[in-house]
User: Which sequence fits this backbone?
């Protein structure tokens, strides 16, 4: 499933408030398709999460966004000014 679809799935499949264990038991095996890298399961993403309970689908979705891998972000080191930088380069403004 695509990452933006997860919030709607959380609403349909879970009852809130819920625990991280309930999320992993119910949806942990669901694959999140990364646009720029390896896919991850919901359980793999949430294993980095320290929060134990979620009050809403939005709260769970935001937590998921916090911990997805680099394959889910846009171009790394993108600069909308048209220059390509790396994290080691200094940029002067």
Assistant:
């Amino acid at each position: 499933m695509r990452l933006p679809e997860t919030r709607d799935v959380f609403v349909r499949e879970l009852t809130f408030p819920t625990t991280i264990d309930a999320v992993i038991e119910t949806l942990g095996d669901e694959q999140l398709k990364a646009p720029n890298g390896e896919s991850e399961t919901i359980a793999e993403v949430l294993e980095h999460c320290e929060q134990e309970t979620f009050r809403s689908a939005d709260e769970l979705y935001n937590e998921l966004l916090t911990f997805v891998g680099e394959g889910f972000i846009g171009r790394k080191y993108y600069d909308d000014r048209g220059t390509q930088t790396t994290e080691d380069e200094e940029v002067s403004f």
The two ends are 40 Å apart (CA to CA).
